[in-house]
Design goal:
The protein is mostly helical. Helix content is 71%, strand content 2%.
């Protein structure tokens, strides 16, 4: 168990190391020289770490924005947090070992399914697999599953999601990227497909479909064609206005004027986007060629399913539009859902940016600008509704005023609630 725990804790849960090792395997299988193997592996590791650094900068800026947003507009309710569910499950229920082994089982079952079925996707977003393992383990435990059955059932269900979600999203991903080299490995995919469906119904069609990326601006505003400047023009007013509503006491360390601090946090957000996209370019330059070795030897026609920021460079304007429209949808849902007896779910800015931005790419690809706008608002409502449905179930399990994000993990949990447990089935 010591070796297994070491592998899980120090390798499989470290996405950058896992991806670098997979790149190394692919290069070795292609019989590359030692120098090429070392260079490709280290560049893959570096690319993912740069991507992660950009994400961390964005997370820090959005955490601050979430604080001033909640305080400025006097919001009270439940903030979805799979991290909190994971911590309580490990510390209070003692499920840490089961979650870790389920995590490993998902990874193993994913490779087996990819090898022997037509679903050739290898899910490489380690953190997402950890959250899926958390949900399947917790709900399996409360459904009465124990020991090896708990681990194997959770691992199999998680692995099915790990290959099914990239598979059903791939037709749109091919449309977005123009190739079949990479897939989407992010457990918010049902939400992305929901936005795509709404965009298909209500968006622009045929010759009338206009991408948000092709927007024509007057000469005096042509500077906004630059991705980073356009992001800055949107985010700076958003941060400053929200900070003005929140006042000087919220989120400001007190070392400078609170509005100036908000301005600099908005700039930090743009810096994070810049770093993230640089990491994406470096990562894709190495992982796709390296993966051909795995495709040729281990899993024929294998396709790496990568985290959602990898797709941001393909449609950067849609990312910002998706973030804004998803946030609008979550705010609408926050006020509407309690009128139906459901919990008030506060908008999660991190989810709204990463999931909302990716959904915006889907909506824009399927239904153009109008599809991205209408679909984005619907997406925000949808990703708030599912966690609200989960609150009552979690309360019955002892997780008071708690719920989770990531639509696919929520769907997996609701399936457990419906299939396995008579108590939860009554809900």
């Amino acid at each position: 168990m010591g070796v297994v725990n070491f592998i899980i804790d120090n390798i499989l849960t470290q996405a950058s190391i896992t991806i670098a090792l997979i790149a190394m395997l692919g290069l070795v299988l292609q019989k590359k020289s030692a120098g090429q193997v070392i260079s490709g592996s280290l560049k893959t590791l570096l690319g993912f770490q740069v991507l992660s650094a950009g994400s961390s900068i964005i997370v820090g800026s959005l955490t601050y924005f979430g604080e001033i947003f909640t305080a400025g507009f006097k919001m009270q309710g439940i903030i979805p947090s799979i991290e909190a569910i994971n911590g309580q499950a490990m510390n209070e229920l003692g499920l840490g070992r089961d979650i870790a082994l389920t995590f490993l089982a998902i990874f193993v079952f994913n490779i087996i399914i990819a090898r022997f079925t037509k679903w050739k996707y290898i899910f490489l977003t380690g953190q997402a697999i950890l959250w899926m393992a958390t949900m399947t383990t917790v709900f399996g435990y409360f459904a009465g599953l124990r020991g090896i059955v708990l681990i194997l059932v959770g691992g199999f269900v998680g692995a099915v999601f790990a290959v099914l979600m990239p598979a059903i999203a791939q037709p749109i991903i091919r449309q977005i990227t123009g190739s079949n080299d990479i897939a989407l490995g992010h457990f918010c995919t049902i939400g992305y497909l929901f936005e795509a469906g709404v965009a298909k119904v209500f968006g622009e069609k045929g010759e009338n479909k206009k991408s948000i990326e092709d927007i024509k601006l007057p000469k005096s505003f042509e500077f906004l064609q630059d991705t980073y400047l356009s992001v800055m023009v949107v985010m700076v007013p958003l941060y400053i206005i929200t900070a003005a509503f929140a006042g000087p006491e919220i989120g400001n360390p007190g070392t400078q004027n609170y509005l100036m601090f908000a301005f600099l946090q908005a700039i930090q957000f743009v810096v994070g986007v810049y770093v993230l996209l640089a990491g994406v370019r470096l990562l894709l330059g190495e992982i796709v060629p390296a993966f051909r070795g795995i495709a040729m030897k281990l899993v024929p026609d294998a396709i790496p399913a990568l985290d959602c920021p990898v797709f941001f460079p393909y449609s950067p304007n849609a990312v910002i539009l998706g973030f804004i429209t998803t946030t609008i949808g979550t705010i609408i849902a926050m006020f509407v859902l309690p009128t139906f007896g459901l919990a008030m779910i506060l908008p999660g800015m991190l989810t709204n940016f990463f999931a909302g931005g990716t959904a915006g790419i889907f909506g824009n690809a399927v239904g153009g600008r109008r599809g991205a706008i209408i679909g984005g608002i619907a997406h925000g409502f949808f990703i708030t509704l599912l966690p609200a449905l989960l609150v009552t179930i979690f309360n019955g399990m002892g997780f008071i005023n708690a719920t989770a994000t990531d639509v696919d993990t929520v769907v997996a949990a609701l399936l457990y609630a419906w299939i396995f447990s008579p108590i939860l089935k009554a809900f």
